[in-house]
Amino acid sequence: MKKMSAVLLGLTVGFSSMVSAATTNFSGLWKFNVNGFTYDVEISQNKLLLEGTMVSTNSNEPNSKIVGSVSGSTIMFSRDISPLLDTPQNYVGYFFQKSGGTNTMAGELYNMTPQNTPSEKYGWYATKVE
Fold it and tell me: Where is the signal peptide (predicted)?
């Protein structure tokens, strides 16, 4: 039993190292286009968790905070846009590199309704600036 536990522990530690080594680093400044609205987004990532600030560049919205997580090349975060909406926007996106090496991500978002159900989905994409 001890040998099996040691093997399982070794596999778990090895797998954890592989997962963290394969996780994309999303930290930095990004230019977002969210259904036609544009934002400067600064993301700080600490291992699998992230936080940041989203600043509108083409509409009169307050700056908003984002919090979320990363799994491999997938990013998931929520954006608090109160007082515009009482519920957060939820984003899911995927990292890829365009030809020429430009770091890019794209995905979809939805708002939660007051009944706690998702709204229709909207598209977004982003390009890393630095």
Answer: 1-21
Q: How far is CA 68 from the centre of its chain?
A: 6
Confidence bin at 8 (pLDDT 50/70/90): very low
CA 77, chain centre distance (Å): 5
Contact in structure between 90 and 109 (CB atoms under 8 Å): yes
Q: Which amino acid is at 22?
A: A
The Cα–Cα gap between 130 and 29 comes to 5
Q: What is the pLDDT of residue 102?
A: 84
Number of Cβ within 10 Å of residue 103's Cβ equals 18
DSSP SS3 for 25: coil
pLDDT bucket at 86, cuts 50 / 70 / 90: confident
Give the pTM: 0.77
Question: Where along the chain do its domains lie?
Answer: 26-126
* Distance separating alpha carbons of residues 45 and 123, to the nearest angstrom: 23
